[in-house]
Sequence to fold (115 residues):
Amino acid sequence: MPANLPEGLSAIVNKDNLSAIIAADKIDPVQLAAALPDGMPVLLTCSDSDSQASCAIERPLIDALRHTALTVVELKGVNHVLRDDPTDSIANYGKPGSLSPQVVDAIGRFVGAAG
Fold:
């Protein structure tokens, strides 16, 4: 593992979780999505402030989920760890904070619709 990781990255990538990250990186989410049962309720969120899961990046995954009961929620100013942070700074990922109200609302509507 490199000694000089970019700012904030060392908070989420370290020797203790490196093997888990390597294993997770081998998983193809598009392939897994395509294998989900037809009509299964699925909530997918993406954000204009998440360079790892922007709505444009998620298009192949969204396409692979078309056979499900897919709900897509496009969030505004929400970072990768689902907190309000329009900067998308990795350095903020490890900081304490609550879920974005947009995320809480999306989950509430999704669960309410399914229940």
